[in-house]
Amino acid sequence: MPSFKQSILHAALAMALAMSVQASAEPSTYDIVARLNQGPGNVTVTETGRVIMSQHQFYEPAYSVVELKGTDAIVPFPNAALNDRTGMPGLKLDSVLGLRAAPDGVVWMLDNGMRSGVTPKLVGWDTQADRLHRVIYLPPPVTPKDQFVNDFAVDPVHRRIFISDPAGGADAALIVVDVETGAARRVLQGHPSVVPENVDLVIDGKPLQVKDAQGHWVRPHIGVNPITEDLQNEWVYFGPMHGHGLYRIKAADLADDQLPPETLSQRVERYADKPISDGISIDRDGNIYLGELAENAIGVITPDRKYRRLSQCPNLSWVDSFSFGPQGWLYAVVNKLHQSAPLNGGENLSKPPYFLIQTKPLAFGQAGR
C-alpha cells in the first residue's frame, strides 16, 4: 500500500501534468464559420474574401469544388457545368483536393482524377474575369499509377507550382510545374523528406486502418502531403503526413531544372519536429500552422523551430487544410476523414456536421496561402 508521502507525490505529479497540458493547449481559440453537410477537402480564400472549398472525394460529392455563400449556402465553383462529371464530354473537375488562390486572382485547383481514372491536372480559374485561365495536364511519368497528387504551393516569383504526391509511399515525390510553359518534373522521389516513417496514426484510441487487396487489415503510412511556401517565396516547407519531421528547401533550387538530382537532394534541410499532420500554412513571421491529427488539435511551429498546440477540442476531428483570409483570420476545414470508408475498412462512420472554422493566428498571412 502506498505511503502518505507517496500519495502526495503522485497527486502533485498529476496536478503538474494537468497544468502542463492546459498551458500547452487553449481549448476554445477558434470560431465555427459554417457547419457543412458534405465533408470538405481543402480551403482557400481569395483576396476579395471569397471562400472556396474542395469537397473530399472520399465522400463521393456531387460537386468537386464549391463556394461558400454566407454561412450556410454552398454553390458549385466556378460553375455547375465544370463540376458535372455525368454531363457532356469536355473539361471536368473530377477529384479536386488541393486548391490555392493566387495574388493575381487565379484560383488553382489540383484534380487527381482518381474517381474517373482520368489524367491528373491543374485547372486555373480567373476569378476577376470569371473565365478559364489555364489547364496543365500531369500525365505519366510525372504522375505514376499510384499517384495521389494532393496539395501544392503557388510561387508567383519563380512562376512555379510545387505539388506534393504521397503516391504509394516509397515512390512519394514533389512535382515542380512551370506555370509559363506547363512543363512538369518529378523530383526528390524516395527521399527521406517525402517518404512516410513507420509511425501509426491513432485517433480517439483507434488506429487508422484499411483493408488491403487480400482483405487484411493494414495501417497505412502516407508520404508527403503538407506543403507551403513562406511569404518571401524563399523556402518551401513540406514533409510526410506519417512522419515526425518537417523539411524545407529553397524555392530557387526546386525551380532550377538544371540542378542535378543529387545536388537537389543534398539541399533539403530537416527543419523541425512535427506531429502526424495533413495540410499546413504559414504567416508573415514564419509561424507554420498544422492540424495535430492524433490529438484533435491545431498547433504551430514557431521560428525557433519548436512545436506547440494552440487549440484542442473534439470538434477538431481531422483538421485537413488551412488558408489565410484578407482580414487576418486563418481558416481551416475539419472533415473527420479517419471515419470515412476508404480509411475505415470500407465502412463510413463519418456523419455531419463538418466544419469550416477560423482562428486568430500569431501574425498576419497572405490571403489564399
From TrEMBL:
InterPro entries: 6-blade_b-propeller_TolB-like (IPR011042), MRJP/yellow-related (IPR017996)
Keyword Signal set for record: yes
Signal peptide: 1-25
Organism: Methylomagnum ishizawai
Subcellular location: Secreted
One Gene Ontology CC term in the entry: extracellular region
Any Pfam family the entry gives: MRJP
Swiss-Prot/TrEMBL keywords: Secreted, Signal
Protein name from the UniProt record: Major royal jelly protein
